[in-house]
Automatic annotation (TrEMBL):
Keywords: Transferase. This is Glycine hydroxymethyltransferase. Its EC number is 2.1.2.1. It is an enzyme of class 2 (transferase). It comes from Mycolicibacterium parafortuitum (Mycobacterium parafortuitum).
Amino acid sequence: MSAESITAGLGAEYAATASEAYRAALQVIESVEPRIADATRKELADQRDSLKLIASENYASPAVLLTMGTWFSDKYAEGTIGHRFYAACQNVDTVEALAAEHARELFGAPYAYVQPHSGIDANLVAYWAILATRIEAPGLAEMGAKHVNDLSEADWETLRNSMGNQRLMGMSLDTGGHLTHGFRPNISGKMFHQRQYGTDPTTGFIDYDAVAAAVREFKPLVLVAGYSAYPRRVNFAKMREIADEVGATFMVDMAHFAGLVAGKVFTGDEDPVPHAHVVTTTTHKSLRGPRGGLVLATEEYAPAVDKGCPMVLGGPLSHVMAAKAVALAEARQPAFRQYAQAVADNAQALADGFVKRDAGLVTGGTDNHIVLLDVTSFGLTGRQAESALLDSGIVTNRNAIPADPNGAWYTSGIRFGSPALTTRGFGADEFDRVAELVVEVLSNTQPAAGPNGPSKAKYILGEGTADRVRAAAAELLDANPLYPGLTL
Ligand code: DSN
């Protein structure tokens, strides 16, 4: 696999033009608010100078980034393609239609809705589309009405209440699920009567028999699969069978691994699109696009998803929909498949690097883009480990592990992801070296007491460790530059 094909997305081939564009843009920004121009330059420098291992982050191409800085930002376009509540949306129609077409083609989905601003927006559109299809539409028919506005106050109250307490089951946050999958503090845990499934306490893997038993007992209207911190693949065909047994709508949130689906690393039973009724994703994680979300749906759910505005959303971010179209076009290139395969291979190399250095991993390894390190094996909390790594130029995020004794704030885990450094061109050897550097930092970090006794946040990093690791990281970073040739 050639490094060039993987880093093609960074735009080395048009670096000179992009440099001119950014220099001009920064000059214009500087004339209005120089501190923002400075922060923008500093952000690039910081991203260039650190090992970014946050599993949900990536580096979008200059083509994607530049697409967001245009006058499409100024346009209101509530409604759908060709059916807007505002005039003069002809160019937004072009943009939205192209983004949706790329999404449909890339994922092989019958329908795509590209307006959601984020993952949570996409999930809310999906949830309300499911409620509209499964509860509201039959309720309206039973009441002999075509539209909710035709109902009496009393009938609307009855119908509205019937949507308010439906059942949803998703993966619990501490076993790797997302907060929008029924976590009580999130709107999904409040608008649904929710219950969660977890993972096997011994292996850390999803136990499909246990999920099936829980689903049979709870009989959810919606079964959600997908994760933010589960380092393994999911058998979506099996999950669909489980959903079908109780007549549940099967929804998959592929926000984390959409790039692996797009790049055909996840195929067959591991590709959610042929198995789910509704699939949601963000566009900025392994998919490497702009920040945003989208929803894919079967013909059955498409009409309700298409009403995302006004159901959940207001005006779409037309400039971001344009950038989604560019990113999805990039993801349809053959080079993206090589990138996606490298993301999976590199995560594997990182996990192997930890295992051979005796660091404890949740599930013992990975077969996606995530590696979840249990830092209790170093006598640390996630918070202490995250801070010590950051001091050493390694950017990660602390994350709960199953049945985490330190809770969701301090945590006992560090989540690593391979998408961003793979975009820079890192390969398996570099990821093994990253594992070595992480272990070096954590082995040289001690928990420390605060002024009031034991602390889950304070730590002492061995003298010289941060400098030593930063120097070693710089060698890797210099050999794999971020936005090669781009100068401000
Ligand atoms: N914040 C994203 C993640 O890190 O997984 C999802 O919300």
